[in-house]
Specification:
The chain is of the alpha/beta class. Helices cover 42% and strands 16% of the residues. Strands 2-3-4-1-5 form a five-stranded parallel sheet, with helices on both faces. It has a five-stranded mixed sheet with strand order 12-15-16-17-18.
Amino acid sequence: MKLDKTISIGYEDFSEMIKEDCYYVDKTLFIKELIDNRSKVNLFTRPRRFGKTLTLSMLKYFFEIKDGSDGNALGNKALFENLNIYSAGEKYMEECGKYPVVFISLKDITMPDFDKAYEAFSALMANEYLRHAKILEADCFSENEAEKYKRILNGKASYVECADALKFLLECLEKYYGKKTVLLIDEYDVPIENAWRQGFYERLIDFIRLIFGAALKTNNSLNFAVITGCLRISKESIFTGLNNLNIISVLSNEYDEFFGFTHEEVADMLEYYGISSLSEEVREWYDGYVFGNNEIYNPWSIVNYVKDHKEDKDFLPRPYWSNTSSNAIVKELIDKAADVNDYEEIEKLINNGSIEKHIHEDITYEDIYSSRDNLWNFLFFTGYLKKVSERLNKTDLILEMEIPNKEVLNIYRSKIRSRFENSLENQNRNELFEAVKNGDVEKISNTISEYLLESISFYDYKEDYYHGFLAGLLKGFPRATVKSNRESGLGRYDIAIVPLSRRDTVYIFEVKVAESYELIDAACDAALDQIRERSYEMGFLKDGYNIVKSYGIAFYKKDCAVRN
C-alpha cells in the first residue's frame, strides 16, 4: 500500500490537517453525540496532549457559518465529506455551517502576575472580536454597542467590560446572524493552575468567575458550550450557580472514545504504515488509560512513535508524553513522601502493583497539596494513574489504581532517580567514606541502611536496584572514581572504587540480595567468596595498585549487612 498520508505532529487546526491530507483518526462522531445529548454547557476533562484542542477545532469548522467573505461560500461541508459524521444521517449534516461560533484557547495565559494575565486575556478577546469584526458593517447595533465592541477590539475596555466581553460577543453575534452562538473554550484551567503556582490564584479566580458566570449562566444568546481542561475545578470556585453544567471526566461513560485513540484506531494506523508487528510494544508503552469503559492509548505518543519509526526502522520507544511538560505533580508526590507508608505505596506502584484511594472530583488547585488524598486525585485525573476497579464505601468512591504504561513509569523512575541524586548532593557522606577506608563494616552497614530507609526502590528490591543505589552512594569518594561491571581476574566485579593514585587503596564491592532476613549474613559470605574465587583483585594488582580491599554486601529490603 502506498503510504501517502503524512504524520501530523503538533497540528491543532482541523481544516489544515484535512487539507494537508494528514493521517486523521476520525473522531467526527463526537459531533453526533453532542447533537443527540443537547447539554447546554459541557465540560470535558482529559490529560494533556489527548486531542482536546484538535477536537474543538473540528467543532468550530463544523458548526460555524461561512458567508463567502473568505472565498468559501459553500461553507466547510467539504472538510467532512469522507468522514464518519457525513454518513451518520442527514439531520446531523444539516447542522453544519449553521451557527456563529466563538472559539478561545486559554492555554497560553501562563503569566508571572495577574496584570499580565489580564492583559493576555484582553488580547485574546480582542483577536476573537477581530475575527468577527465584519459584523460591525451591519446597522443592527446601537452606537453604544458599536463603541463597546470597538473598545474591546482595540484592547481599551475597562475591567468590567473585559469580564463581560465573552457574553457581549455572543449577544452581538446573535443580533447579527439571528442565531444563538456556539461557545468553545479550550484549556480553561491552564491559567488557573499557573496562577496558583505564581501566587495570584485568588485574583484570577475572581476574574474567571466573572467571565464564566456572565457567558455561561442565564445567557440567552448561548446555543451550547464545550469547555476542555485537564482538571475539574469545583463549582464553588468558578462555576458558582451554574446548574446546567454537564461534566464529563475520565470516569464518565459518555464520550469515552473521543479523546485519545482506541485499540482499533491504533491497530488501523499501525497496519496503514506497515508496522502491525510492533503492536505489543506500542501497547506496553502507550496504552493503559481507561476513560469510562474504554481502554485508550496516548494519541500524542502514538503519532510521534509512528513518525519516528517511519524514519528509522531500528528506533526504540521514547517517553514522548513525559517530555511535553515538567511533570511537576509526580515530583511533588515523591518529594512530599514523608514516611514508610508513603514510600511503600510509591514502590508498590512502580513495581507493577496497585493501590486504593478515595476519589473525589470537586477540588481546587489550592487544595491539591492540603492532603495526600488530593494529590493522588490530581495524579489520577491528569493521566499519571489509571483505574483498575472501583467500589463504594458507604457514599465514598474508592478506586484501585496503577501506573498506565511504561512511558508513565519512566516519569516516576526519572523523578525518583533525581530525588536520590539531589539528596546525595545535599548530604555529607564523609562518615561513610571514612568507614570504607577504615574497614568499619558495622558503620558501613548502619549508614547504608539509613539511606535505604530514606529511598524509594523502583526495581522491587532486585539486585540492579541495590547495585545502582550503592554506586550512587559511593560516587564522590575522594581522589577516586567509581566503576561498575568491569572485567577483572576471572569475571566482572560489581563495583570498585579506583583511586587516581596507585599508592592508594582499591575497594571492591560484590552485591548480593538475600531471600530472607535470616539469610543476609550467608549472602554476605557468598559475596566475599565470589570475589576471592574469581580473583577480582588481580586486574588491579597487574595495573600497578599495591593494596586491594574487598567487601561483600548483602541486602534484604531496607536492611544491609557488610563483611570484609
